[in-house]
Amino acid sequence: MSGIDLSFAGDVRIQTVQELAWPGVALDFLLHQVPHAEFAQTRAYQDERFVDPDTRELRMSYHSTVLRTPHGNVLIDTCIGSDKHRPLIERWHQQKFPYLERLAALGLAPVDIDYVCCTHLHADHVGWNTRLENGQWVPTFPNARYLFAEPELRYWEQVRREDPAHIFSQSWDDSVLPVIEAQQAEIVSPDHEIVAGVQLQPAFGHSPGNVVIDVRYGEDHAVLSGDVMHHPVQIERPDWNSVFDQDRAQAQATREALLKRVANGRTWLIAAHFAGPTALTVTKDREHFKYHSALRTRS
Ligand SMILES: [Zn+2]
């Protein structure tokens, strides 16, 4: 199991909880109309941490990020979840993941989570919002406030009304609605500050109300970028969209703007599906962004 453990400004810790490592994702499953010949020219293609050298398939991870702050424990993105009915994607369907055990290995029980925030409401980011108990979906984290960015919540509420068979209407029903009904949901603006130093920022495009989480303590800075990028190859090629980007032009503009913001060699970029080191830093050489897996020290 891979995972990060970063310390910020002495008293904030950033850790990941991995639910699923998926090493063999076909290029066409994840990235939209990327020519194989161009993919083969990228640096990520040669990087065994991100692309399987035998099959040349992509490695993906599904993980949450936990922020342990003096003002409470914040859980960002809640993965696929156990027992969820997702017949369209086998790896998501009726699974039993040892996710809570892995959270416990970090010393955290469900009662210890104070805030839950999903960067967007796709099924693989809301799953552990709830768990099945005696045939009912109940909030997994009984003491948590679940924060939902308003444009994202309103959009999927409307999809649910108009298209009950939509795959993300299923996840609305089993992973979002039960939280609202349990009165643990809080609808917030897309630039809401969760606790001091941890703030949502609008990053629309992948989904209509998608956000990223900006974490800043002292000199230390990280951006939890959710699905603005799905694979490190998109740092080199921000013009490549994911199959799952809903508004591709807006998703690309958001990705480029985010990369510009973090391309200082010091900000950690922590994406929801990056395999391997999970946290990367970024620099820009002339026109091209480049990823690194360690901090660049100031010269
Ligand atoms: Zn995702």
What would you say the CATH architecture is? Answer: 4-Layer Sandwich
As a percent range, the share of helical residues equals 10-25%
CATH topology: Metallo-beta-lactamase, Chain A
* Widest β-sheet, arrangement of strands: 1-2-3-4-5-8-9
The CATH homology group name = Ribonuclease Z/Hydroxyacylglutathione hydrolase-like
Low-pLDDT ranges: none
Mean pLDDT: 95
Largest sheet: 7 strands, mixed
Radius of gyration: 18 Å
Secondary structure tally, helices: 7
Derived from helix and strand composition plus strand pairing, the structural class reads: alpha+beta
Count of individual beta strands: 16
The CATH class: Alpha Beta
Q: Identify the overall geometry.
A: globular
Number of domain units: 1
**What is the H-and-E element order?**
EEHHEEHEEEEHHEEEEEHHEEE
Percent of residues in beta strands = 25-35%
Associated small molecules: zinc ion
N/C terminus separation: 34 Å
Structural features:
Metallo-beta-lactamase, Chain A; alpha+beta; globular; binds zinc ion; about 300 residues; single chain; 16 strands; 7 helices
Question: How would you characterize this protein structure?
Answer:
The protein has 299 residues and is of the alpha+beta class. The protein has one domain (5-292): Ribonuclease Z/Hydroxyacylglutathione hydrolase-like (Metallo-beta-lactamase, Chain A). Helices cover 21% and strands 31% of the residues. It contains seven helices and 16 strands. The strands form three sheets. Strands 1-2-3-4-5-8-9 form a seven-stranded mixed sheet. It has a seven-stranded mixed sheet with strand order 10-11-12-13-14-15-16. The protein has a two-stranded antiparallel ribbon with strand order 6-7. A hairpin with a 3-residue loop joins strand 1 (5-8) and strand 2. The chain is globular and about 55 Å long. It binds zinc ion.
